Amino acid sequence: MAVNGSPELLIVMGAGATADQTEHVLARLQEAGVSARVQRGREATVIGAIGDRELLATLPLEGYPGVEQVLPILKPYKLVAREVAPDPTVIEVDGRKIGQDFFGLIAGPCSVEYREQTLEAARAVAAAGATMLRGGAFKPRTSPYTFQGLGDDALAILREAREETGLPVVTELMDPRHVEAVLESADVIQIGARNSQNFLLLAEVGRADKPVLLKRGLSSSVEELLMAAEYVAKEGNERIILCERGIKTFETSTRYTLDLGAVAVLKQETHLPVIVDPSHAAGKRELVLPLARAAAAVGADGIIVETHPRPEEALSDGPQQIPSAEFGAFAREVEGIVALMGKQIG
Ligand code: PEP
Ligand code: MN
Questions:
Q1: For the whole model, what pTM was predicted?
Q2: Residue among 245, 248, 259, 306 whose CB has most ligand 1 atoms within 8 A, to mutate
Q3: Do 141 and 148 meet the contact criterion of CB atoms below 8 Å apart?
Q4: Ligand 1, residues 280, 288, 316: which to mutate, most atoms within 8 A of Cβ?
Q5: β-sheet bridge partners, residue 307
Q6: CA–CA separation, 219 vs 144, rounded Å?
Q7: pLDDT in the model for residue 37
Q8: Is 325 helix (H, G, I), strand (E, B) or coil?
Q9: Within a domain: residue 79?
Q10: End-to-end CA, the chain
Q11: Which atom of ligand 1 is nearest to the CA of 193?
Q12: 276-284 average pLDDT score
């Protein structure tokens, strides 16, 4: 459902409100020409009223039976704001879950390079009990002279890896012209850090019927990330996983500065799941495990990690990729913290 206008008011139905009372509120809103979106949670039902704030102010919403509270949404992000959903969002892909009690362990090579390389990595990732496979087909490289990804050939390899391992696949979309091909092959569409504020691309995936993994821009604030997610949600696709992957700061000892504080803030500000990419933040494989543990401990809903059967031969991001032979041990270490947080790998 594309949203015309943003939700301006939240109508919270009381715990004892009946379905008829909710329907009554919705009917009154409809009569007044106000569109609404209903979220039924475990404990409460929340109605987001979308439309002109002045018109909404003329409706005696507080007096309707079953209504407990009417609250204005003051944040610039509306659909992704914590308040509009009674429960945290869980993204389900092929029976695998990310969010709430489920920690997503997403892993795979930085780039799909050739068939055996990706299949070997995928087997190790599957054997470790991961949630999804990652692998870049279209690569956003800083230099135009470095490996740019295999494109469509990589998508075919990813389909084969999914077929063999049963793992859902996440891969990056860089160009709206590739959307059909990527949608055919991917279970989750990744929007990379460099396209985090490519608003036309965001709207494009907002019209897609697949979940979106949205990375934080290299220099985006938390609010800018949430507004980017709002672009996707506004087009009707609210299946969004946010990803903190490190930001540019004065610090040079890591590739980027992993902003774990932002993860804690995001968990307060949005109902969407938030995952962490320790690989791109670290830039060095020795740092990936401690950052992954910290991500799980700060309350992230998952991690996305790079692993390669032979990192020393990798065509991109070799220094940060975990050798696939070590990926099982890595996953067990992270799982220890995941269990402490009362979660399980989704
Ligand atoms: C990636 O995950 O392949 C990638 C390029 O990451 P980022 O967009 O965060 O740099
Ligand atoms: Mn990479």
A1: 0.94
A2: 245
A3: yes
A4: 280
A5: 322
A6: 21
A7: 86
A8: helix
A9: no
A10: 27
A11: 8
A12: 98
